[in-house]
Amino acid sequence: MAADADAAEVERLYELGERLSSAKDKSELAADYEAIIAAVKGQSVKAKQLAAQLIPRFFRSFPALATRAMSAMFDLVDMEELAIRIQAIRGFPLLGKDTEFVSKIADVLGQLLTSEENVERDAVHKALMSLIREDVKNSLQPLFKHVEQGSEIREKIICFLRDKVFPLKAELLKPQAEMERFITDLVKKSVQDVTGSEFELFMGFLRSLSIFGDSAPRESFQELIEIIQAQADLNSQFNVSDIDHIERWISCMYMALPIFMRGASASKFLNYFVKQIVPAFEKIPEEKKLDLLKTIASSSPYATAQDSRQLLPSVVQLLNKYMPGKKVDDINHNYVECLLYTYHHLAHKTPNTTNSLCGYKIVTGQPSDRLGEDFTEHYKDFTERLTGTEETVRAASKRLTQGMADFSKAISSAKTEEEKTKIKGDQQTSTRTMRSYNNILAMAQPLHSKSPLFIGDKKIALSWMEHPKKPTATTAGGKRSQPATTNGNGPANKKGRGGMHNQLVNRAFEGLSRGGRGTGRGRGRGGRGRRGWGGYR
């Protein structure tokens, strides 16, 4: 009997659907459409599945019943039967042609991204993309709202945006300037509480937009920097025990590097380092000190003269700590390399500041030359430390050179691939260390002069930065080999606009002392909950 009733109900719905299809004035058949909507409350699974097809098909013909029809569709996607849910999901884009309901439909579809059924999730993806193509603004707003408010589905939403929406920005964001501004505002609200990898994703997307491209005004780059500054918590008091904040600051500095290159100001980051981080530097965990010094070294070429004057005393203070006054067995060559590199680039912009710090006699004709004051002791102490550092590094370099000669033999005699891999890793470490030694010697040598010439160009390549391979020589009539492309999924691997800058960030992150993307959650500053940064690299 139940089967007969189901068949009769399905047959009745088919008749209603055919009558509506053939009617010239469908508005006269509102009772038929109401009957189709009512079938959603019935017992027949097949009838509900058919109703999920028919409700969207005739939805626009009955505006007075739109709310009831929409409510019925929402009931359908909440049912246990997979076939019913999928049919309803596929019908949502037809309902979305009515602007009034787009946001609500997008919100519901966004919640369905959590489905564990592949076929259902695929249907949701297709329905959402159809909806977004129909109405970008009203579709994306509720999705970003879930991210902004930290709802349970935020991670699913972010994955959807990353995989489906962001790659189609050229197609979806039209008119370009207006829509890029619209989505930028959505992103800015969404990144207030994100993990490191999520922030990387969103910032990579923003950097790929034309409004932040190479021809964009300086104000656009400053806007990006301000987003990063907010993420780095530059208005908060530095807490040396808050590792999450330290990692957040380090990661944000590296992310800001390509934007500093394009003219945005590094002042707030550098001032924070001077006023907040340097006074607590000795209490910072050892594994984070080097990361901090690397960020400062990398950003020093983009410091202004004013920033350089403020930062130089702190750099000299740290140099005096880590450069020995006489030859010793070993030094922290990574620290010294970073500090000397930073010192040169800052001093290049404001050379006479070093007169009072290091006892030099650099004449610029400004009162800040302070040539009438005696800083002989400063000069003596600084150059003695330079000499002690150079002697220590030369001795260490000699020992390292002798040891490096044995690597080739060790690799050939290794019995397993695991042994070879370890030896090659040690060889690469030694090579980087040798580059660091050479850099220290090259940067220390000119500083013995009473009026040194500071290195302010790219003559020195930091040892921990990736060194590009020399281009392959061409044969007669041949073409140069094309550079290899990276096929990663992360935003830093995007092709096209900003690629060079993204490569810089990649190289910088490779130099960090500890890897691993974090997605853990923690509690931030200022009394509000915040997702743990976890080392964004």
Largest sheet: 2 strands, antiparallel
Low-confidence stretches: 468-529
Quick check: average pLDDT?
86
Shape: elongated
Question: Count the strands?
Answer: 2
Overall number of structural domains: 4
Features:
23 helices, two-stranded antiparallel ribbon, 1% strand, Serine Threonine Protein Phosphatase 5, Tetratricopeptide repeat, 537 residues, mainly alpha
Could you please describe the fold and organization of this structure?
The protein has 537 residues and is an all-alpha fold. It folds into four domains: 1-96; 97-213, Serine Threonine Protein Phosphatase 5, Tetratricopeptide repeat (Alpha Horseshoe); 217-302; 314-464, no CATH class. Helices cover 61% and strands 1% of the residues. It has 23 helices and two strands. The chain has helices at residues 2-22, 30-38, 45-57, 66-76, 82-95, 99-111, 118-134, 136-149, 154-165, 169-172, 176-190, 196-207, 218-231, 243-260, 267-277, 286-299, 305-322, 333-349, 353-358, 376-404, 407-413, 417-444, 499-510, and strands spanning 522-523, 529-530. Strands 1-2 form a two-stranded antiparallel ribbon. The protein is elongated and about 105 Å long. The termini are far apart.
Indicate the topology.
Blueprint: H1 2-22, H2 30-38, H3 45-57, H4 66-76, H5 82-95, H6 99-111, H7 118-134, H8 136-149, H9 154-165, H10 169-172, H11 176-190, H12 196-207, H13 218-231, H14 243-260, H15 267-277, H16 286-299, H17 305-322, H18 333-349, H19 353-358, H20 376-404, H21 407-413, H22 417-444, H23 499-510, E1 522-523, E2 529-530
Antiparallel strand pairs: 1-2
